[in-house]
Amino acid sequence: MDTTPDRRRNRAAAKAPTSASMGNRRPTPVFRTVTWLVIVITMSALAFYLGVWTGMKMNLPSSPRDQRTWSASSKACSCGLEDVDSSELQRRVSSLVEERLKSMDAADTANDRKTLRKGACDDIEVDTFCPKKGYVLPRSESETSGLRKTSDSSSYHLLPKSLRHFVNGIVRVSKEDFMDTFDQGVPPNPLTEGFEALIIYNKKEALPSDDAVRKRAQGEGNPSQGLPVLSANEATENCDTMNIVLTNNPSNTNQCLALVGSQYQSYHIDRWMRRKLKHGPLDAKEPLRLSTRGFTAAGKEEFFPPAEHQVHEHQKRLMTYFTVLPQLKSRLKALLAKMGTKTVVVLTSNFGQLRSLPFMKSELLINFACNSRSKGFSLNNVIVFPTDLETKELSEGMGLNTFYDEHLMASVPKREARYYGDQIFTGVMFSKVVCVQLVNELGYDVLFQDVDLVWFKDPLTYFHNESLPQFDMYFQDDGSRQERYSPLSANTGFYYVRSNSKTKHFFRHLLYSADLITAWKSHQQVLIQLLNENRSLLTLSVKVFAKELDEFPGGLHYHRKTKLMKKIMRGESSAFIFHMSWTENKFFQQMGEWHVNEKCVGREAKEITDQVPDTQSANAGPLANHCCSAEPIIKCHYRDKPSKYECPNSPFIDKKGKSFLGSTLKRCLALTTAEYLLPMTKMQSEVPSPTDDESGSEPACWLLDHRA
Ligand SMILES: *[C@@H]1O[C@H](CO)[C@@H](O)[C@H](O)[C@H]1NC(C)=O
Ligand SMILES: *[C@@H]1O[C@H](CO)[C@@H](O)[C@H](O)[C@H]1NC(C)=O
Prior knowledge:
Shape: globular
Radius of gyration: 33 Å
Helix content: 25-40%
Region (Disordered): 1-25
CATH class of the largest domain: Alpha Beta
CATH superfamily of the largest domain: Spore Coat Polysaccharide Biosynthesis Protein SpsA, Chain A
Largest sheet: 7 strands, mixed
Transmembrane segments: 34-56
InterPro entries: Nucl-diP-sugar_transferase (IPR005069), UDP-D-xylose:L-fucose_XylT (IPR052636)
Strand order of the largest sheet: 8-7-6-9-12-11-13
CATH topology of the largest domain: Spore Coat Polysaccharide Biosynthesis Protein SpsA, Chain A
Pfam family, one: Nucleotid_trans
GO molecular function: glycosyltransferase activity
Bound molecules: 2-acetamido-2-deoxy-beta-D-glucopyranose
């Protein structure tokens, strides 16, 4: 780890001038620290003066050396406290004044000195030292010892004795450095560049070894230097153990963070919120009440127990599962053995086109198969778990390894019309859990993926790369930062799982808790929250790829990251896959990733051909000939969405949309070489005629931006 920048910052902090009139200084990180320190000191002082108001001024000595004389005559500077021991008060005030003088001394600026010499109370508002109503006065000597001068007569303790049972020093670390050094698997937040994290040392022995650092971390020495800034490794060199609290402020409320030491430790953060007892949003007039992590400021509760009928239905399904499990396992074991691979790519797909499950449509399964084969990928390590007979036939017809169990899947209805959406959803989600659970349980590493996904490079080469940091599970970043997905935001449509006792335990229990999936209407939400517990309890390690990583783009990037999408369209990105997430066949069609002939969309196998699939053959099945187009079927739909070619005649999808390849169009209009001309034959119905081009010039250059 390169620590130079931190060191440099340390030095900068040491040199930075400081003064009592901080307001005149330019705001720098140093400024923040010193201000903070002054605040801490001031606040401690405030604590001594209860129920007091004042606008009084006090007299200052003309130089630090005159302090003693001054302090005797400084009664006039008091806060008007009658009920507080006045000598104690004087001592505090004089300490603070001395403190400020010293920092001015350090600043060594002529101006400051002049003001000081003119001196007297004029320049210091006693107000700042005096407490506002309601602050608690420490009463005993031991409680107040914190602000006393230490024996070396020139420094003060930032940390009073009463805190030292768990705070023995504080340092700052660059947030990015800290998060990189201790990879907790959570998706990084790139918008916090330049931010720092705070490390609190519970014991003196945990402080870094460097003497100067130790002193400053404890608030000794020149306060103008502020808290030390260290690299994550330096800061933690003597930490035998470390607790990490990740905190943010969802809904941007007036949030406070309390650290309470010397308690029976908890590894959960308890959340309190002002709200009515039963429900309702944040309400400042109410008392703070213990509230779940899923209780949003708007009053929505994200986490709640499943309803009775959901539990009942789930138990029935589990009963079936346990009944058929032995034969299920042996059948699956045989199939996996035949596939002869250590890592299995697992897909599940559904024929009924449930609106809430567009990412499972069987035509997307067909597209994945056709698309992959057109690029030369072998699909021998892919296994499909259809949730209905129609999809089973399609999958087999496409020559894919297919595992279907009529008992288990029979409870998964095929067509939405005849069932309530809730039931189909539940059943399909159950299969989404079971398919990974079974393969994982049998000892295979699993790459699970929804079917709304295409490959550019074999993603397994990424996960098998030995230089990949080792985690038990890897997920794509969903991009959402709702409370219900915190702190991982794992996308459950593309993830990799190593088979080990921890992941086996996890998926078994996810299966047992699947009634929550019905209740919360989200496989992802349940999986993440259960992951949290397993991470905490079993150190199941989970890595969520940063959404800035080019390797695993998805819907998020499609709709928001134009630059990356252009790179992908040009075939120049390092992306392994593309996961549409918010599926629209149309988007795949624009992208040039659609390979399914129209006659196979939404059709059952028997409507396409009466050839019987030969499940023994390793080749593409009979449906492949009918359904797969070797060349991508490219169609324009939306001008403002990523597309392989310019779509000048298509409508905008967003009112304020901008043409995706707009600038390219203008640039290439100047070029007329054949290589830039649109291969017109590839474009279907919505192809704009060249003369319709907005600029009117001809021939238009409907090309992908491969020269940018
Ligand atoms: C493995 O990962 C490293 C680091 O990301 C990369 O440089 C290398 O090319 C990868 N190897 C393979 C075989 O993909
Ligand atoms: C792990 O998560 C599962 C749900 O997947 C939960 O039921 C189980 O209690 C958790 N186990 C541990 C040890 O955290």
